[in-house]
Hints:
Elements: E1 2-6, E2 9-11, E3 17-24, E4 33-38, E5 44-50, E6 59-60, E7 68-73, E8 78-83, E9 92-98, E10 109-113
Parallel strand pairs: 2-10
Antiparallel strand pairs: 1-3, 3-8, 4-5, 4-9, 5-6, 7-8, 9-10
Amino acid sequence: VQLVESGGGLVQPGGSLRLSCVGSGFTFRSRALKWLRQAPGKGLEWISTSPPPYSGRASYTASVAGRFTVSRHDAKNTLYLQMTRLKTEDSAVYFCALATDSTSRGQGTQVTVSS
């Protein structure tokens, strides 16, 4: 399993970013995938889970519900996280992983929300 995140950067509060995660080494379309984040000095935090197609709705942690949207393009083996109305407390390294295995996460992509 290999997962590679990208799309992070510096953004002002209230701004938007879209993260991408490209997967390989497994059958992407049949697996639930999740986004995690880790802020400095804190543990991994679950953000969102995307089930495989026709397997239910995506789920979100309360702090991002209504601001973040997870989606997937299975033909491209890619998972996305559209982040809007970003807050300073959203600053973290963001990872994607298999929903059942957080250790499968990639190297992550840094998101910094600051004015």
